[in-house]
């Protein structure tokens, strides 16, 4: 059921999301969904998590593809097209981030879960010789910068696309310099 609801969310986004719409997508009733989920918010959170997991899996596959290079900068460069693309559920994930910012008391988990999922692989991309503290700092910086560039691209029109790309290029250069320092 969750996969079917997630597919509907990917296709139609969060606008007008309800238990009835989710039940229709899953081929069941809203009462059956309430048996399995605590409510519409719980179902939404779980469906967003499935979408995010699909996106994380795709972007990390690109980042760890041996054909893209092994440095942190090269791996971050490889995952960027996946993050900026119009792939499955992108609109719903963007809307989920907006919802988390709009009403953090109710929906903060929609954004926090992304950090929890992305930070460990970003740490793993850092050079082995770096201290754990440095890996943590750089992973947090990369995650925050990528999130900011994505928001800029999604909300800034053509200027946002240009600004996001300029910022991303600067981030990659900074990572190259950081790695060169050792």
TrEMBL record:
HTH tetR-type domain location: 1-55
The keyword Transcription appears for this protein: no
Domain of life, per lineage: Bacteria
Residue spans binding DNA: 18-37
Protein's UniProt keywords contain DNA-binding: yes
Keywords assigned by UniProt, alphabetized: DNA-binding
SUPFAM superfamilies reported for this sequence: Homeodomain-like
Designated name of the protein: TetR/AcrR family transcriptional regulator
């Amino acid at each position: 059921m969750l996969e079917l609801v997630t597919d509907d969310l990917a296709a139609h986004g969060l606008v007008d999301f309800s238990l009835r719409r989710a039940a229709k997508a899953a081929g069941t009733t809203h009462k059956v969904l309430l048996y399995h989920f605590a409510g519409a918010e719980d179902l939404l959170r779980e469906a967003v998590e499935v979408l995010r997991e699909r996106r994380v899996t795709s972007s990390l596959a690109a980042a760890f593809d041996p054909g893209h290079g092994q440095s942190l900068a090269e791996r971050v460069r490889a995952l960027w097209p996946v993050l900026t693309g119009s792939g499955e559920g992108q609109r719903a994930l963007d809307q989920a981030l907006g919802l988390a910012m709009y009403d953090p008391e109710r929906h903060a988990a929609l954004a926090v879960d992304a950090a929890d999922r992305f930070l460990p692989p970003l740490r793993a991309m850092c050079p082995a010789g770096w201290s754990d503290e440095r890996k943590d700092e750089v992973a947090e910086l990369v995650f925050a910068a990528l999130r900011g560039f994505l928001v800029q691209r999604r909300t800034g029109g053509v200027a946002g696309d240009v600004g996001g790309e300029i910022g991303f290029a600067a981030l990659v250069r900074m990572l190259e310099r950081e790695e060169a320092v050792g």
